[in-house]
Protein backbone atom coordinates (compact mmCIF):
# COMPACT_ATOMS: atom_id res chain seq x y z
CA UNK A 1 0.00 0.00 0.00
CA UNK A 2 1.39 3.45 -0.94
CA UNK A 3 2.37 5.51 2.08
CA UNK A 4 0.10 8.49 2.70
CA UNK A 5 0.31 10.31 6.04
CA UNK A 6 -2.91 12.21 5.26
CA UNK A 7 -5.05 9.07 5.15
CA UNK A 8 -7.13 9.80 8.23
CA UNK A 9 -9.38 6.79 7.76
CA UNK A 10 -6.38 4.56 8.51
CA UNK A 11 -4.91 6.97 11.08
CA UNK A 12 -8.03 7.01 13.27
CA UNK A 13 -9.51 3.61 12.56
CA UNK A 14 -9.23 2.66 16.26
CA UNK A 15 -10.95 5.89 17.39
CA UNK A 16 -14.69 6.21 17.93
CA UNK A 17 -16.53 9.44 17.07
CA UNK A 18 -16.74 10.36 20.73
CA UNK A 19 -13.03 9.84 21.35
CA UNK A 20 -12.26 12.09 18.36
CA UNK A 21 -14.50 14.79 19.85
CA UNK A 22 -12.74 14.39 23.21
CA UNK A 23 -9.32 14.67 21.57
CA UNK A 24 -10.44 17.86 19.78
CA UNK A 25 -11.36 19.51 23.08
CA UNK A 26 -8.16 18.37 24.71
CA UNK A 27 -5.85 19.66 21.97
CA UNK A 28 -7.83 22.93 21.82
CA UNK A 29 -7.37 23.38 25.57
CA UNK A 30 -3.57 23.31 25.09
CA UNK A 31 -3.90 26.67 23.36
CA UNK A 32 -4.80 28.26 26.71
CA UNK A 33 -1.60 29.06 28.65
CA UNK A 34 -3.52 29.08 31.95
CA UNK A 35 -4.56 25.42 31.50
CA UNK A 36 -1.09 24.31 30.41
CA UNK A 37 0.77 26.16 33.16
CA UNK A 38 -1.61 26.02 36.11
CA UNK A 39 -3.62 22.88 35.25
CA UNK A 40 -1.01 20.38 36.50
CA UNK A 41 -0.48 22.36 39.75
CA UNK A 42 -4.20 22.44 40.45
CA UNK A 43 -4.47 18.74 39.63
CA UNK A 44 -1.60 17.82 42.00
CA UNK A 45 -3.17 19.90 44.77
CA UNK A 46 -6.62 18.37 44.28
CA UNK A 47 -5.29 14.82 44.01
CA UNK A 48 -3.21 15.23 47.16
CA UNK A 49 -6.36 16.33 48.97
CA UNK A 50 -8.11 13.25 47.60
CA UNK A 51 -10.69 15.19 45.65
CA UNK A 52 -12.18 12.38 43.54
CA UNK A 53 -13.69 14.62 40.85
CA UNK A 54 -10.20 15.79 39.84
CA UNK A 55 -8.89 12.25 39.58
CA UNK A 56 -11.85 11.37 37.35
CA UNK A 57 -11.35 14.50 35.27
CA UNK A 58 -7.63 13.86 34.69
CA UNK A 59 -8.18 10.14 34.00
CA UNK A 60 -10.92 10.76 31.46
CA UNK A 61 -9.14 13.53 29.59
CA UNK A 62 -5.38 14.01 29.30
CA UNK A 63 -4.51 10.69 30.98
CA UNK A 64 -6.68 8.60 28.65
CA UNK A 65 -5.24 10.42 25.61
CA UNK A 66 -1.56 9.94 26.50
CA UNK A 67 -1.39 6.98 28.91
CA UNK A 68 -2.16 3.27 28.68
CA UNK A 69 -3.29 2.86 32.29
CA UNK A 70 -2.04 2.90 35.87
CA UNK A 71 -0.35 -0.51 35.75
CA UNK A 72 1.18 -2.93 33.24
CA UNK A 73 -1.95 -5.09 33.37
CA UNK A 74 -4.27 -2.13 32.79
CA UNK A 75 -2.16 -0.98 29.82
CA UNK A 76 -2.51 -4.33 28.07
CA UNK A 77 -5.88 -3.24 26.66
CA UNK A 78 -4.14 -0.46 24.70
CA UNK A 79 -1.32 -2.85 23.68
CA UNK A 80 -3.95 -5.21 22.26
CA UNK A 81 -5.85 -2.45 20.47
CA UNK A 82 -2.66 -1.17 18.82
CA UNK A 83 -1.68 -4.68 17.78
CA UNK A 84 -4.88 -4.98 15.70
CA UNK A 85 -3.33 -2.31 13.46
CA UNK A 86 0.08 -4.07 13.49
CA UNK A 87 1.49 -1.43 15.82
CA UNK A 88 3.70 -2.67 18.60
CA UNK A 89 4.00 -1.13 22.05
CA UNK A 90 6.74 0.04 24.38
CA UNK A 91 5.55 0.08 28.00
CA UNK A 92 7.00 3.24 29.50
CA UNK A 93 6.84 3.56 33.30
CA UNK A 94 6.48 7.33 33.47
CA UNK A 95 6.54 7.94 37.19
CA UNK A 96 8.82 10.72 38.40
CA UNK A 97 9.24 10.40 42.13
CA UNK A 98 11.56 11.71 44.82
CA UNK A 99 15.24 10.88 44.50
CA UNK A 100 15.87 8.19 47.12
CA UNK A 101 17.13 4.61 47.10
CA UNK A 102 13.72 3.10 47.92
CA UNK A 103 12.13 4.84 44.93
CA UNK A 104 15.06 3.93 42.66
CA UNK A 105 14.74 0.25 43.62
CA UNK A 106 10.97 0.35 43.18
CA UNK A 107 11.39 1.88 39.70
CA UNK A 108 13.99 -0.75 38.75
CA UNK A 109 11.54 -3.46 39.88
CA UNK A 110 8.73 -1.92 37.83
CA UNK A 111 10.90 -1.77 34.68
CA UNK A 112 11.76 -5.44 35.29
CA UNK A 113 7.99 -6.10 35.14
CA UNK A 114 7.83 -4.40 31.72
CA UNK A 115 10.71 -6.59 30.52
CA UNK A 116 8.86 -9.69 31.78
CA UNK A 117 5.72 -8.52 29.95
CA UNK A 118 7.69 -7.94 26.72
CA UNK A 119 9.30 -11.39 26.99
CA UNK A 120 5.95 -13.16 26.67
CA UNK A 121 4.13 -10.75 24.36
CA UNK A 122 5.29 -10.23 20.79
CA UNK A 123 3.16 -7.07 20.54
CA UNK A 124 5.62 -5.36 22.89
CA UNK A 125 8.65 -4.52 20.77
CA UNK A 126 10.99 -2.93 23.29
CA UNK A 127 11.35 -2.04 26.95
CA UNK A 128 12.59 1.37 27.99
CA UNK A 129 13.80 3.27 31.01
CA UNK A 130 14.83 6.73 32.08
CA UNK A 131 18.08 6.55 34.05
CA UNK A 132 16.92 9.45 36.22
CA UNK A 133 14.31 7.06 37.64
CA UNK A 134 17.01 4.80 39.09
CA UNK A 135 19.83 7.28 39.80
CA UNK A 136 20.49 10.52 41.65
CA UNK A 137 21.12 13.21 39.03
CA UNK A 138 23.80 15.07 41.05
CA UNK A 139 25.76 11.84 41.40
CA UNK A 140 25.69 11.13 37.66
CA UNK A 141 26.72 14.73 37.07
CA UNK A 142 29.68 14.44 39.41
CA UNK A 143 31.26 11.65 37.33
CA UNK A 144 30.20 12.98 33.93
CA UNK A 145 33.49 14.73 33.15
CA UNK A 146 35.48 11.56 33.90
CA UNK A 147 33.30 9.69 31.44
CA UNK A 148 33.51 12.48 28.84
CA UNK A 149 37.30 12.06 28.75
CA UNK A 150 37.06 8.25 28.63
CA UNK A 151 34.60 8.41 25.74
CA UNK A 152 36.91 10.76 23.83
CA UNK A 153 39.80 8.36 24.37
CA UNK A 154 37.57 5.40 23.32
CA UNK A 155 38.15 3.73 26.70
CA UNK A 156 35.71 1.50 28.58
CA UNK A 157 36.27 2.79 32.11
CA UNK A 158 36.05 0.38 35.08
CA UNK A 159 33.83 1.72 37.87
CA UNK A 160 36.80 1.63 40.27
CA UNK A 161 38.32 4.63 38.43
CA UNK A 162 35.53 6.78 39.91
CA UNK A 163 37.03 6.42 43.40
CA UNK A 164 39.24 9.40 42.62
CA UNK A 165 36.34 11.83 42.24
CA UNK A 166 33.87 10.37 44.75
CA UNK A 167 33.75 10.05 48.53
CA UNK A 168 33.51 6.53 50.01
CA UNK A 169 29.74 6.92 50.50
CA UNK A 170 29.27 8.27 47.00
CA UNK A 171 31.28 5.43 45.55
CA UNK A 172 29.07 2.89 47.37
CA UNK A 173 26.06 4.75 45.99
CA UNK A 174 27.30 4.68 42.43
CA UNK A 175 28.01 0.96 42.73
CA UNK A 176 24.37 0.43 43.74
CA UNK A 177 23.22 2.70 40.91
CA UNK A 178 25.32 0.93 38.30
CA UNK A 179 24.00 -2.40 39.59
CA UNK A 180 20.42 -1.21 38.99
CA UNK A 181 21.40 -0.07 35.48
CA UNK A 182 23.15 -3.35 34.61
CA UNK A 183 20.35 -5.45 36.23
CA UNK A 184 17.95 -3.95 33.71
CA UNK A 185 20.27 -4.49 30.73
CA UNK A 186 21.30 -8.02 31.78
CA UNK A 187 17.68 -9.07 32.38
CA UNK A 188 16.52 -7.63 29.04
CA UNK A 189 19.36 -9.35 27.19
CA UNK A 190 18.69 -12.70 28.89
CA UNK A 191 15.02 -12.39 27.91
CA UNK A 192 16.00 -11.27 24.38
CA UNK A 193 13.96 -8.10 24.87
CA UNK A 194 15.38 -5.02 23.16
CA UNK A 195 15.89 -2.19 25.65
CA UNK A 196 16.08 1.58 25.09
CA UNK A 197 18.04 3.78 27.46
CA UNK A 198 16.37 7.19 27.11
CA UNK A 199 18.54 10.27 26.54
CA UNK A 200 18.77 12.94 29.22
CA UNK A 201 20.39 16.35 29.77
CA UNK A 202 23.95 16.85 28.46
CA UNK A 203 25.43 17.21 31.95
CA UNK A 204 24.69 13.57 32.77
CA UNK A 205 24.64 12.08 29.27
CA UNK A 206 28.36 11.16 29.09
CA UNK A 207 27.85 8.86 32.07
CA UNK A 208 24.82 7.29 30.44
CA UNK A 209 26.58 6.96 27.07
CA UNK A 210 29.53 5.21 28.73
CA UNK A 211 27.32 2.83 30.70
CA UNK A 212 25.11 2.04 27.72
CA UNK A 213 28.11 1.44 25.47
CA UNK A 214 29.53 -0.98 28.06
CA UNK A 215 26.20 -2.84 27.96
CA UNK A 216 26.22 -2.87 24.14
CA UNK A 217 29.73 -4.34 24.23
CA UNK A 218 28.48 -7.04 26.61
CA UNK A 219 25.12 -7.89 25.05
CA UNK A 220 25.08 -6.82 21.40
CA UNK A 221 27.45 -9.51 20.11
CA UNK A 222 24.99 -11.02 17.64
CA UNK A 223 22.40 -8.28 17.22
CA UNK A 224 21.32 -5.00 18.78
CA UNK A 225 19.54 -5.63 22.07
CA UNK A 226 20.66 -2.60 24.08
CA UNK A 227 19.89 0.74 22.41
CA UNK A 228 21.32 4.13 23.33
CA UNK A 229 19.39 7.31 22.46
CA UNK A 230 20.92 10.23 20.55
CA UNK A 231 19.42 13.72 20.54
CA UNK A 232 20.05 15.46 17.24
CA UNK A 233 19.41 18.96 18.60
CA UNK A 234 22.95 18.53 19.92
CA UNK A 235 25.56 19.59 17.39
CA UNK A 236 28.04 16.90 18.48
CA UNK A 237 25.92 13.79 17.89
CA UNK A 238 27.02 12.99 14.34
CA UNK A 239 30.62 12.91 15.54
CA UNK A 240 29.47 10.79 18.48
CA UNK A 241 27.75 8.29 16.18
CA UNK A 242 30.76 7.99 13.87
CA UNK A 243 33.00 7.39 16.89
CA UNK A 244 30.58 4.77 18.23
CA UNK A 245 30.66 2.92 14.91
CA UNK A 246 34.48 2.85 15.03
CA UNK A 247 34.41 1.40 18.54
CA UNK A 248 31.78 -1.16 17.55
CA UNK A 249 33.89 -2.24 14.57
CA UNK A 250 37.05 -2.48 16.69
CA UNK A 251 35.27 -4.47 19.43
CA UNK A 252 32.86 -6.47 17.24
CA UNK A 253 29.48 -5.49 18.62
CA UNK A 254 26.23 -4.26 17.10
CA UNK A 255 24.82 -0.81 17.74
CA UNK A 256 21.25 0.00 18.69
CA UNK A 257 20.25 3.66 18.44
CA UNK A 258 16.99 5.44 19.12
CA UNK A 259 17.25 8.70 17.21
CA UNK A 260 15.29 11.68 18.54
CA UNK A 261 15.57 15.46 18.22
CA UNK A 262 15.67 16.08 21.99
CA UNK A 263 13.31 17.23 24.70
CA UNK A 264 15.27 19.64 26.89
CA UNK A 265 16.24 22.45 24.50
CA UNK A 266 15.22 25.44 26.64
CA UNK A 267 16.77 24.00 29.80
CA UNK A 268 20.05 23.26 27.94
CA UNK A 269 20.27 26.76 26.50
CA UNK A 270 19.42 28.49 29.78
CA UNK A 271 22.06 26.51 31.67
CA UNK A 272 24.71 27.23 29.06
CA UNK A 273 24.03 30.96 29.38
CA UNK A 274 23.86 30.88 33.18
CA UNK A 275 27.12 28.93 33.48
CA UNK A 276 28.83 30.67 30.59
CA UNK A 277 29.73 27.78 28.30
CA UNK A 278 28.90 27.29 24.60
CA UNK A 279 25.42 25.90 24.07
CA UNK A 280 25.45 22.22 23.07
CA UNK A 281 22.28 22.83 21.04
CA UNK A 282 22.07 23.70 17.34
CA UNK A 283 21.44 27.34 16.60
CA UNK A 284 18.17 26.69 14.78
CA UNK A 285 15.61 24.05 13.91
CA UNK A 286 16.90 23.75 10.36
CA UNK A 287 20.37 22.62 11.53
CA UNK A 288 18.76 20.18 13.94
CA UNK A 289 16.58 18.73 11.16
CA UNK A 290 19.58 18.45 8.86
CA UNK A 291 21.61 16.53 11.45
CA UNK A 292 18.64 14.32 12.25
CA UNK A 293 18.26 13.25 8.63
CA UNK A 294 22.01 12.96 8.06
CA UNK A 295 22.50 10.64 11.01
CA UNK A 296 19.54 8.50 9.98
CA UNK A 297 21.03 8.19 6.49
CA UNK A 298 24.45 7.34 7.95
CA UNK A 299 22.87 4.57 10.04
CA UNK A 300 20.86 3.14 7.14
CA UNK A 301 24.14 2.63 5.27
CA UNK A 302 25.71 0.53 8.04
CA UNK A 303 24.55 -3.06 8.60
CA UNK A 304 26.05 -2.88 12.08
CA UNK A 305 23.49 -0.30 13.25
CA UNK A 306 19.82 -0.88 14.08
CA UNK A 307 17.71 2.21 14.57
CA UNK A 308 14.44 3.42 15.93
CA UNK A 309 13.37 6.78 14.52
CA UNK A 310 11.59 8.30 17.53
CA UNK A 311 9.93 11.21 15.82
CA UNK A 312 6.63 12.86 14.94
CA UNK A 313 8.24 14.57 11.96
CA UNK A 314 6.62 13.48 8.69
CA UNK A 315 9.49 14.52 6.42
CA UNK A 316 12.12 12.66 8.44
CA UNK A 317 9.94 9.55 8.59
CA UNK A 318 9.34 9.66 4.85
CA UNK A 319 13.06 10.11 4.13
CA UNK A 320 13.86 7.03 6.17
CA UNK A 321 11.39 4.94 4.13
CA UNK A 322 13.03 6.19 0.92
CA UNK A 323 16.56 5.42 2.11
CA UNK A 324 15.46 1.93 3.18
CA UNK A 325 14.08 1.39 -0.31
CA UNK A 326 17.35 2.60 -1.89
CA UNK A 327 19.23 -0.02 0.15
CA UNK A 328 16.74 -2.73 -0.89
CA UNK A 329 15.53 -3.10 2.69
CA UNK A 330 11.93 -4.30 2.93
CA UNK A 331 9.59 -2.29 5.21
CA UNK A 332 9.55 -5.14 7.72
CA UNK A 333 13.36 -5.24 8.01
CA UNK A 334 13.95 -5.55 11.78
CA UNK A 335 16.91 -3.13 11.66
CA UNK A 336 14.42 -0.28 11.34
CA UNK A 337 11.67 0.88 13.66
CA UNK A 338 9.54 4.00 13.74
CA UNK A 339 8.17 5.15 17.09
CA UNK A 340 5.73 7.78 18.27
CA UNK A 341 4.16 8.59 21.63
CA UNK A 342 0.67 7.30 22.45
CA UNK A 343 -1.92 9.96 21.66
CA UNK A 344 0.26 11.80 19.15
CA UNK A 345 0.83 11.56 15.39
CA UNK A 346 -1.39 8.55 14.79
CA UNK A 347 -1.36 9.54 11.12
CA UNK A 348 2.32 8.48 11.03
CA UNK A 349 2.06 5.36 13.18
CA UNK A 350 -1.06 3.87 11.61
CA UNK A 351 -0.15 4.67 8.00
CA UNK A 352 3.43 3.39 8.36
CA UNK A 353 2.12 0.18 9.93
CA UNK A 354 -0.50 -0.21 7.18
CA UNK A 355 2.33 -0.02 4.64
CA UNK A 356 4.19 -2.83 6.41
CA UNK A 357 6.78 -0.84 8.37
CA UNK A 358 7.76 -1.78 11.93
CA UNK A 359 6.10 0.77 14.20
CA UNK A 360 5.86 1.06 17.96
CA UNK A 361 4.10 3.45 20.29
CA UNK A 362 5.47 4.49 23.68
CA UNK A 363 2.64 3.53 26.04
CA UNK A 364 3.29 5.53 29.23
CA UNK A 365 1.69 4.25 32.42
CA UNK A 366 1.67 4.81 36.16
CA UNK A 367 -0.60 6.09 38.96
CA UNK A 368 -2.45 9.26 37.90
CA UNK A 369 -0.80 11.53 40.46
CA UNK A 370 2.69 10.23 39.68
CA UNK A 371 2.48 10.66 35.90
CA UNK A 372 1.28 14.27 36.12
CA UNK A 373 4.75 15.69 35.36
CA UNK A 374 4.82 13.54 32.18
CA UNK A 375 1.35 14.75 31.22
CA UNK A 376 2.31 18.37 31.91
CA UNK A 377 5.25 17.97 29.50
CA UNK A 378 2.94 16.55 26.81
CA UNK A 379 0.62 19.54 27.27
CA UNK A 380 3.55 21.98 27.08
CA UNK A 381 5.03 20.22 24.06
CA UNK A 382 1.70 20.34 22.28
CA UNK A 383 1.41 24.06 22.93
CA UNK A 384 5.01 25.00 22.14
CA UNK A 385 6.07 22.68 19.28
CA UNK A 386 5.41 24.77 16.23
CA UNK A 387 2.30 23.58 14.48
CA UNK A 388 1.85 20.32 16.43
CA UNK A 389 -1.59 21.19 17.84
CA UNK A 390 -2.70 22.54 14.47
CA UNK A 391 -1.53 19.34 12.79
CA UNK A 392 -3.37 17.05 15.23
CA UNK A 393 -6.56 19.16 15.14
CA UNK A 394 -6.53 19.49 11.36
CA UNK A 395 -6.30 15.72 10.91
CA UNK A 396 -9.06 15.01 13.43
CA UNK A 397 -11.32 17.54 11.71
CA UNK A 398 -10.58 16.00 8.31
CA UNK A 399 -11.57 12.58 9.66
CA UNK A 400 -14.74 13.89 11.31
CA UNK A 401 -15.78 15.45 8.00
CA UNK A 402 -14.98 12.24 6.11
CA UNK A 403 -17.13 10.22 8.52
CA UNK A 404 -20.02 12.69 8.21
CA UNK A 405 -20.01 12.30 4.41
CA UNK A 406 -20.10 8.46 4.60
C1 LIG B 1 9.31 7.47 20.59
C2 LIG B 1 9.95 8.70 21.15
C3 LIG B 1 10.97 8.58 22.08
C4 LIG B 1 11.59 9.72 22.61
N1 LIG B 1 12.61 9.59 23.51
C5 LIG B 1 13.29 10.68 23.93
C6 LIG B 1 14.44 10.58 24.75
O1 LIG B 1 14.86 9.49 25.14
N2 LIG B 1 15.06 11.73 25.12
C7 LIG B 1 14.64 12.97 24.69
O2 LIG B 1 15.30 13.98 24.99
N3 LIG B 1 13.55 13.10 23.93
C8 LIG B 1 12.86 11.99 23.53
N4 LIG B 1 11.76 12.14 22.73
C9 LIG B 1 11.22 13.49 22.43
C10 LIG B 1 11.91 14.07 21.22
O3 LIG B 1 13.26 14.35 21.56
C11 LIG B 1 11.27 15.38 20.70
O4 LIG B 1 11.21 16.32 21.73
C12 LIG B 1 9.91 15.26 20.13
O5 LIG B 1 9.70 14.01 19.55
C13 LIG B 1 9.69 16.34 19.06
O6 LIG B 1 10.57 16.16 17.96
P1 LIG B 1 10.08 15.55 16.57
O7 LIG B 1 11.23 14.97 15.84
O8 LIG B 1 9.00 14.59 16.88
O9 LIG B 1 9.35 16.71 15.83
P2 LIG B 1 9.65 18.19 15.28
O10 LIG B 1 8.37 18.88 15.59
O11 LIG B 1 10.09 18.14 13.87
O12 LIG B 1 10.82 18.82 16.11
C14 LIG B 1 10.68 19.48 17.32
C15 LIG B 1 12.02 19.36 17.98
O13 LIG B 1 13.03 20.03 17.18
C16 LIG B 1 14.02 20.58 18.02
N5 LIG B 1 14.03 22.04 17.83
C17 LIG B 1 12.95 22.85 17.77
N6 LIG B 1 13.33 24.14 17.59
C18 LIG B 1 14.68 24.13 17.54
C19 LIG B 1 15.66 25.15 17.41
N7 LIG B 1 15.31 26.44 17.27
N8 LIG B 1 16.96 24.81 17.42
C20 LIG B 1 17.34 23.50 17.54
N9 LIG B 1 16.43 22.49 17.68
C21 LIG B 1 15.14 22.81 17.68
C22 LIG B 1 13.63 20.21 19.45
O14 LIG B 1 14.31 19.03 19.78
C23 LIG B 1 12.13 19.98 19.35
O15 LIG B 1 11.66 19.10 20.35
C24 LIG B 1 11.15 11.01 22.19
C25 LIG B 1 10.13 11.12 21.24
C26 LIG B 1 9.53 10.00 20.71
C27 LIG B 1 8.47 10.16 19.68
Annotation keywords:
single chain; 406 residues; alpha/beta; TIM Barrel; eight-stranded parallel beta barrel; 16 helices; binds flavin-adenine dinucleotide
General form: globular
Stretches where pLDDT is under 50 for at least 5 consecutive residues are none
**Number of DSSP-assigned strands:** 8
Main beta-sheet annotation: 8 strands, parallel, barrel
The N- to C-terminal Cα distance equals 22 Å
Query: Which small-molecule species are bound to the chains here?
Result: flavin-adenine dinucleotide
> Helix-strand pattern, N to C?
HHHHHEHEHHEHEHEHHEHEHEHH
Please give the radius of gyration in angstroms: 21 Å
Share of helical residues? 55-70%
CATH level 1 class label: Alpha Beta
Strand order of the largest sheet: 1-2-3-4-5-6-7-8
Helical/strand content category: alpha/beta
| Overall mean confidence score, pLDDT | 93
Instruction: Examine the coordinates and then state which fold CATH places here, giving the name of the CATH topology.
Output: TIM Barrel
